[in-house]
Amino acid sequence: MATGQTDPRRRERILAAALDLIAEEGVAGVSHRKIAARAGVPLGSMTYHFTGIDELLLEAFTEYADHVVAVFEQHLAGAATPAEAREAVTDLVHTLSEGPRRDLILVQELYTLAARREPYRALCVRWMRRSRALLETHFSPNTARRLDALIEGLTLHRALDDDPPDRSLTREAVGRISGED
Predict the structure, then answer these.
(1) At what angle do helices 53-77 and 118-135 cross, to 10 degrees?
(2) pTM
(3) pLDDT at residue 15 above 50?
(4) pLDDT digits (tens, 9 = 90+) for 121-137
(5) Is the pLDDT of residue 3 over 60?
(6) 3-state DSSP of the chain
(7) How confident is the model at residue 180 (pLDDT cuts 50, 70, 90)?
(8) Mean pLDDT of the region 80-85
């Protein structure tokens, strides 16, 4: 890169480094210095791109929530019938619960912040609304709300269980909540 040119991906690298550090050390272990070192940027870049650690964390978690919503979209987009939508929700639970441990940790760190601080709670509320809106393309609003809670709960339980329940239990739970007996 020529002298005087700015690094167009620096902000993205900082946000990615913040999420990586949160996954490794928790929010409490994150600092400007550690993030800058992980991202390979000068420490001064932190204050150039973000007004403070809260702005950085909130933006990083917002990007993470966008990623999870995109996973919802990928799974639900192809469903054309109620049966396909139920199977897409089943697949979604298994994709999320069998995904990287990093994702499980990031979700729990975000929920902990949301329980304590309004900006993170507002982010979670927006995320839940977006997830439910995607579910509502296939299910009633009340069913979408119940399925969203089921997805969160089963994902966590499956990810933490030494012997997680198989697809048949997930499929049955999705069917019962969505009105299929």
Answers:
(1) 10
(2) 0.88
(3) yes
(4) 999 999 999 999 999 99
(5) no
(6) CCCCCCCCCHHHHHHHHHHHHHHHHCHHHCCHHHHHHHHCCCCHHHHHHCCCHHHHHHHHHHHHHHHHHHHHHHHHHCCCCHHHHHHHHHHHHHHHHCCCHHHHHHHHHHHHHHHHCHHHHHHHHHHHHHHHHHHCCCCCHHHHHHHHHHHHHHHHHHHHCCCCCCHHHHHHHHHHHCCCC
(7) low
(8) 95
The alpha carbon of 123 is separated from its chain's Cα centroid by a whole number of angstroms, namely 11
For the chain, list the domains and their CATH numbers.
Answer: 1-50 (1.10.10.60), 58-177 (1.10.357.10)
Token reading at 150: 């089921």
Spatial CB neighbours of 7, under 8 Å, sequence gap ≥ 6? 1, 13, 41
Cβ count within 10 A of residue 89: 30
User: What CA dihedral angle connects 120, 122, 125 and 129, to 10 degrees?
Assistant: -120
